[in-house]
Amino acid sequence: VQLVESGGGLVQAGNSLRLSCAASGSMFGITAMGWYRQAPGKQRELVASITSSGRSTNYADSVKGRFTIARGNDKKLMYLQMNSLKPEDTAVYYCNAHELRVRLGLPPDEYDYWGQGTQVTVSS
User: Fold this and answer.
1) Which of 52, 56, 87, 95 is deepest in the core (most CB within 10 A)?
2) β-strand 67-71 against 77-82: which pairing, if any?
3) For residues 62 and 47, what is the distance between their CA atoms, to the nearest angstrom?
């Protein structure tokens, strides 16, 4: 699975951005996708995630009510709508796909795919 993010940029606080993630390759075994971010000097953190079915989502407390994660109908597109952006949202945002590999007679294996990241900068 290859992941390519787009949509980052520089915006003023209070404005909006929409990030997109385009996946290619087989999505068989992908159980969830998500957005992570990493600010300078900080650890990568989960921003939002969505199950393969799209029925369940999860958000970091810091973005609840402001960000919305969604998947495209063909399951190979994922979006992050970011509203009311704050300077503390400044980070590199990464697209993630989580795969569950079922192995006959063995415990399942898990693997994470990552995009190259897209910079989001929010000025005050």
Assistant:
1) 95
2) antiparallel
3) 8
